[in-house]
Amino acid sequence: MTELPYNVNKARLIEKIAELHKDKKIDGITDLRDETSREGMRIVVELRRDVNPSVVLNLLFKHTQLQDTFGVINLALVNGEPKVLNLYDLLNYYLIHQKDVVTRRTKFDLDKAEARAHIVEGLIIAQDNIDEVISIIRSSQTTQQAKTRLMERFGLSDEQSQAIVDMRLKALTGLEREKLEAEYKELMAQIAQLKAILADEKKLLGVIREEIIAIADKYGDDRKTEIGYDEYDMSMEDLIPETNTVITMTKVGYIKRMSTDNFKAQHRGGKGIKGMETIEDDYIVEMLMTTSHHYLMFFTNTGRVYRIKAYEIPEASRTSRGTAIINLIPLQPDEKITAMIPIKEYEDDKYLFMATRNGIVKKTPIKDYENIRKNGLAAINLREDDKLIEVKVTDNSEDILLFTKFGQCIRFKETDVRSTGRTTMGVIGMNLAPNDVIIAMQTASMGEAVLLVSSNGLGKRTRIDEFTTQNRGGKGVKCYKITEKSGNLVGVKSVENDDELMLITTEGIIIRIQVSDVTVLGRITTGVKLINLKEGVSVASIAKVVEDKTLMPPEEAKEETDESENSDEDSAENNNSHAEAIENNTEA
Predict the structure, then answer these.
(1) By the 8 A CB rule, do 530 and 268 touch?
(2) Quick one: pLDDT at residue 167?
(3) N or C, which end of the chain has less CB nearby within 10 Å?
(4) Which residues share a beta bridge with 43?
(5) Are 438 and 356 spatial neighbours (Cβ–Cβ below 8 Å)?
(6) Which residues pair with 257 in a beta bridge?
(7) pLDDT confidence tier of residue 489, bands split at 50, 70 and 90
(8) Which CATH architecture has domain 10-63?
(9) Cα separations in angstroms, 400 against 362, 419, 420, 471
(10) What is d(CA 140, CA 163) in angstroms, rounded to the nearest whole number?
(11) What is the CATH architecture assignment of 242-587?
(12) 30, 16, 25: which is closest to 67 by C-alpha?
């Protein structure tokens, strides 16, 4: 820092910065030095390598006098009464005053011009009859007699005749008609201009503007200081680093934000780590990876959409319950979040593709959702027995895959669904069997395979090219062999070989596994065991880890070490699962 605001004490500023660092209000400062010398003022603040300098600078602006303001009491007389004015009122009353000044001045100039034009008219008449006018003046006994005779003879007014008799004989005889006519013409043009100003407020304001510009050009000088609104104009977002984050939401509506380094990748068949403390009958149903500066769009079972920034969700520990979503979003009674997607920008060529529980699909330009009010916005028109289950951002070139809980799947072109407005209902995407429902929607470009997980913790990978494209509205093909041991499908994600997946149970247990550990099998198979479940516990949902492979802190790694004592038993179960998968594949 080589400059400080006016009247800011350097020593006190340095003390304040040190105090903020000590109180942990500003993190990441490693050194603070005063290097002021005869060459000029210089304060040096050194930061850790992992700290965003812009965030620290904005915090310094917010909490210290590095950015300062000066209070001004705008006390002025308004109609003779003292008033404290804001900037708008100050400018408005000044404009009213200027309009009054210019109006009175214009009226004065108009009266003066009209009076002179009237006199010039009389002088022109006198010049046309100069010999007779001189004769009348010479033969009159008094000035009043001369005025009266001139008025009677030529029809002049009192002012015109007075102007003539007031002139010396030499000036009277020296009148030139051309000069008088030129002056009269100029006066009439001036009169027309002044009348136009008085008749039109826009022209009146134009005069005021021109005069203010003239004053600025004559007396204005450069500012002694700079105003840097663009570079350092702060918002809440400027004070928050953009970091990778995990957002989780539970069945009963608790939401929280966590750092991605709270979870460690484990081998398939592990028991996982405790993800949160849940109340009875509650568990995590939605988990996504995003950044703290992205928007989160929340779609509800009633077809509405809400929006907040990710950083507006309170950060919480891995084991805490989080914050009730109703405290962040004004949900209506019986309204529940059914889909949550992160979004950075609302691009012209992007769409929101929606799928409902009953197999209805809809495509709407994402621009239609750019201006979401605080109390939400209608996103889709739903039938009474239907609800929204999945939303994806697309570009009109995707292949859409719908999956049902009974193990059916359909793949069709996104272009089969025409774009419609926000409040439309959509069209049939898949013809469902009785009691079957859609549990997931994926796009073909999201991965080379889909990973399917059942309620009892079994899963598999199946290559996307095994699902042939067909027309929208069909019954689809078999994608998972449902058995009593496997249970129904609960989640499907498009994955690549190096991806990672999180499985969330109805007890709130989370396991993070490598996708490469999950066997690639055909469509009509059950899969292998992905997680050991206690009796009465099932898989509630799954989430793909899209970024950040950071391991959990060392003190938490002991959990997995303690659990590894059961690894022999887990290994045996996994071998049995492989045998089942091979058997199922053979049957297929």
Answers:
(1) yes
(2) 86
(3) C
(4) 34
(5) yes
(6) 247, 315
(7) very high
(8) 2-Layer Sandwich (3.30)
(9) 11, 15, 17, 11
(10) 16
(11) 6 Propeller (2.120)
(12) 16
- Give the closest residue to 563 by CA, choosing from 260, 321, 274, 263: 274
Rounded to a whole number of angstroms, the CA Rg of the chain reads: 42
0.85 cut: is pTM over it?
A: no
Task: State pLDDT tens for residues 441-470.
Answer: 999 998 899 999 999 999 999 999 999 999
Distance in angstroms (rounded) separating the CA atoms of residues 481 and 524: 5
Residue of higher predicted confidence among 55 and 456? 456
Q: Is 153 helix (H, G, I), strand (E, B) or coil?
A: helix
Residues forming beta bridges with residue 31, ordered by sequence position: 46
pLDDT tens column, 197-210: 999 999 999 999 99
Whether the pLDDT of residue 353 is over 90: the answer is yes
CA atoms of 579 and 205, how far apart (whole Å): 90
Tell me the average pLDDT across 379-394: 89
Residues of the chain with CATH 3.30.1360.40: 10-63
Q: In percent, how much of the chain has pLDDT > 70?
A: 85
The encoded tokens of residue 109 equal 């100039």
Q: Give just the sign of the alpha carbon dihedral 281, 287, 292, 295.
A: negative
First to last CA, the chain: 72
Residue 533 has which token pair?
Answer: 């479940």
Q: Where are the alpha helices (DSSP H) in 168-271?
A: 169-173, 177-199, 201-219, 229-232
Lookup: tokens for 129: 């009859």
DSSP state string for 387-429: -EEEEEEE-S-PEEEEEETTSEEEEEEGGGS-B--TT---EE-
**In contact, 278 and 507? CB cutoff 8 Å:** yes
Name the segment(s) of the chain with CATH classification 1.10.268.10.
79-217
Identify the H or E element spanning 354.
strand 351-356
Two structure tokens written together for 576? 């049995």
Pseudo-torsion of CA 42, 45, 49, 52, nearest 10°? -100
**pLDDT tens digit string along 60-95?**
888 899 888 777 888 998 988 999 999 899 999 999
- Tell which CATH architecture fits domain 79-217: Orthogonal Bundle (1.10)
Q: At what angle do helices 87-128 and 177-199 cross, to 10 degrees?
A: 150
Type of residue found at 534: K
3-class DSSP state of 529: strand
Q: Which of 394, 470, 395, 458 is nearest to 429 (CA)?
A: 470
Q: Where does the pLDDT of residue 565 fall: very low under 50, low under 70, confident under 90, or very high at 90 and above?
A: very low
Contact indicator for 439, 403 with CB cutoff of 8 Å: yes
In the chain, which segments carry CATH 2.120.10.90?
242-587
What is the number of other CB atoms lying within 10 angstroms of the CB of residue 422?
17
Residue type for position 285: V
Q: Which two tokens stand for residue 1?
A: 């820092």
